[in-house]
Structures
1.
Amino acid sequence: MVDKVIIADKLTKRFGDFTAVDGISFDVSQGEIFGFLGANGAGKTTAMRMLSGLSMPTSGKAMVAGYDVYKENEKIKRNIGYMSQKFSLYEDLTVRENIRFYAGIYGKSNAFIKEKTELVLKQLHLTSEADKLVKSLPLGWKQKLAFSVAIFHEPKLVFLDEPTGGVDPVTRREFWNLIYEAAAEGITVFVTTHYMDEAEYCNRVSIMVDGRIDALDTPAQLKKTFAAQSMDEVFLKLARKAVRGE
Amino acid sequence: MTTVSISNIVKRYGSKKTVTTALHGISFDVQQGELFGLIGPDGAGKTSLFRILTTLLLAEEGTATVDGFDVVKEYKEIRKRVGYMPGRFSLYQDLTVKENLDFFATIFNTTIEENYDLIKEIYQQIEPFKDRRAGKLSGGMKQKLALSCALIHRPSVLFLDEPTTGVDAVSRKEFWEMLKRLREQGITILVSTPYMDEASLCDRVALIQSGRIMQIDTPAGIVQQFGKKLLAVKSNNMLELLKILNDQEIVENAYPFGEYHHVVLKNGGEDVLRNELNRKGMLFEMEEAEANIEDCFIRLMNND
């Protein structure tokens, strides 16, 4: 049996009389790259906040990394990684200090940190930059480092919120290589993006419209279902149906 | 007629010890009525260049004119004539929609009524919320208000710094349709974006990376100059396929491209590649592909 890292069942969040997330049900398997798409305001961020233990659902059920989002949200936080374009690293700490800081927060042992730091630096070709301030690195390197830091504590699941925004096309692809490697090691990747070509790199993709998941399948099957040439077309067909704004 | 003329602009930041060069001697012209795109990733120098042209920042070297006026000596004239929408939302959050628009109109000695026809199409979409504070608007509505404010004095040149960053595919399409209609009114538009697919919507584009212009042309012209045979290949094992492709002597570069991998061949040899993949027991589909701006950008970056 394949382990389910996320199981969501009619998960709902209301703010007053506004239903931000409207009874979404889906699951994500271990090692899967799961694309979480939707227009601005469709409810992606609210859904991600519930799944990462930061926001209590109004109703419905969800298990993340084996823990209940209502009762065990602190355990969820320990067992996931998170990275976004906006929040990632401390600019005025060095590369090594950033790694040390995040690994320490997750309670990793000194021996583990020491050994794995060298490994990560080597993988990213950053060994010679290890003692430089993060702010001196090009954006693309920062994003790759931020991803490695987010999975340094070997979580079951990592949430990536628009990780490649504004990054050049070569670095964007290098970033996806890192995602593939992480998935191959068994880390489940839950990723949002506005680049529709990146939707193609996911094993399965869900598309949220007005708080609901209106489509969920492999990219190939979605294109078939919606008689579309590309994921861009699938997205436009679905998102144009949205009635609510942001 | 040339509306924007840029000649050897150099911009450096930092003190003597730690100098960062943001722009390495940039030159190009933009013609009146053009929709001109500055395409490149974060950190390429797009914002620095826009700030120099809108007279908010001084260049270390080089000269530039906007609407015939020098960006240093005649900055006051330029400020009357340009509209600028910065990347970060910079309207007054605690003024209402209408108050913001009134404010900008007044600063430029005009009124909303006087230029209403220009902003009508955009402003009408947010007019039902005209008494709402700007800080309480959604991202898409903020964007429309910012564009209205940048247009209210009927500028001859409009600078839009990454108006579509972080915006979903549907809103991006709508925004570009608005730009096309503005251009029909004769306004020269310079727009920057990190999204390569938006290049094809411009009359001409400059591809910019690390403070250098890699190429300037019409989108079609850039694609024509790609100059190499490009293949699109897919299989049931994309990761393995990519490895094999990049190991081939005849392959200049291979990289993921949506559903396919794109393969740039050094000098042809499609059949050789086909045979090699067959020999490895790969199940694959291969067809010739047309390069787009992103392929060109990747190739220019790699040749650097």
2.
Amino acid sequence: MSDVTDPLAREIEGPSPRQMLKSRAASHKGLIFGMSVVAFLVLVALLAPVLAPHDPYAQSLMKRMVPPVFMGGTWEHPLGTDHLGRDYLSRLIYGARVSLMIGAIAALISGVIGTAMGVAAGYFGGKVDAVVTFLINVRLAMPVVLVALAVVAILGGSLTVVICVLGLLLWDRFAVVMRASTLQISRRDYIAAAQVIGASTPRILLSEIMPNVFNNLIVIVTLEMAHAILLEAALSFLGLGVQPPTPSWGLMVSEGKNMMLFEPWLVLIPGVVLFVLVLAINLMGDGLRDVTAPEGRS
Amino acid sequence: MLTFILKRLGLALLVAFTVSFISFSLLFLSGDPAAALAGETASGEDVEALRRLYGFDRPMLVQYGEWLFSAVRGDFGESYYFKLPVSNLIAERLQVTMILGVCGILFALLTAVPLGVAAAIRPNSLIDRFALFLSVAGQAMPSFWFGLILIVVFAIQLGWLPPSGADTWRHFIMPTIVLGYYAMPAIMRLTRAGMLDVLGSDFIRTARAKGAGETRVLFKHALRNAIIPVVSLAAVQMGFMLGGSIVVESVFALHGAGYLAWESIARNDLPTVQALILVFSMFYIVFTFLADVLNAWLDPRMRSA
């Protein structure tokens, strides 16, 4: 097998697709950066009780709005304290839990809804496709922020309500992308072959279609997770999302807003962390798309 | 072309109808709108009186039919809080939102299209990287936070611009930037991708071969083709932006329709909320319909879709 001029032999001896994927991933700066930051913040969220220097809910009237270390504060409260004297770093660390949990579960719920709709539309076509396309149009016409605010106001703001509302609203991109990818895959010969040998429809959907649209699915999951995190922050900022005293980054910005004139860091810090998390998730999603579909890279 | 328009119009109407039903049903999510309206301290008799006053005791479908019939004629009932006709309230407030929306989309187009073109002319150059950075940052920036930072820097520290209100054109500068930046990344990416695509095509090579100047090739031949999808994306973004203006308007205390929505939601003013959801949806539906028609008019290949 030393005849490297034979293209088949070269293909057999060359790196496997998995190895190529790994090497592409390792050389993609955005992906590496995004994944490291997300992994770091997930760890922070998981280890919150160990890492947080103080109780995020403990108030202290004596220590209100202590400035952070870099603005003349002490290491007792590295990022200072808020208007109720709660340690800002501890609230940020617990806030990572809120953001990541809402992002992940909302993306999961909308992912299940959107994928089911999109794959069904793409595979069955015809009337199913028409109905799904119509539902996507209806969903896109509803103003997300407005509807989410209204529903949260009616049902009362809590973590569960916010997660469910976002999960039920953000399935549109899943449906659009999964429909398109399934449509493409359904025309392949191996799908026809599976149909010919008598494979059942659930089997074709689960073991022929799903594995082949999975890469696209992962990309949308990350992008929608970022979307959900931003929306939760916006809802909480407007006072109709996660309710106090839960440490949510959007809520922290909102609480700091009144002291913005004198203590701008109260607004600056949670905003920067939110920005970095969303940026990292987006870079991870973009990177995954580049790496898994190198032919579609521009 | 006519069949295409009629088909799209029918679809748009059907979507509008469905959206109207959903925005009306939202009211009933709480189970009992009368109790929600009366508040927690109200007695059973008060709730009952309210229920009869607003007709909540009738079947939901009857209420919906009545509401829709009035809504089509521009009558959305009376606001619970302001005690004024909802349509007057919205018409009054919509002006500010429209100004903001138009300024926002113009800002987005005027920054995104030149940047996208410049980035496509020299891929991987400094300007391409700058454009990419701007669009990646824009997608991750929480708009309420961006607005607050602008207020801190330009209104408080430098004192150049007023922090809130809607009295003069200077009040609209920061909200325009925040809202426009929200729509910019998508428009820029599409312009860049479209230009790259067109610049690699045969007719551009032909134009260059016959000796057309580079400016002429870029603007007369390439941009005219690349801009078609951008125009329709801008129309769709405009629909999204009007819905997204609620956050921007509340940050800058611009008393537009978005601010009205926020106030009404906080005050349980259901007729106003229902009407606003419907109005914002209608804007989106009208803009996407226009985008579809425009697309089909500019590019006949789209008409079969």
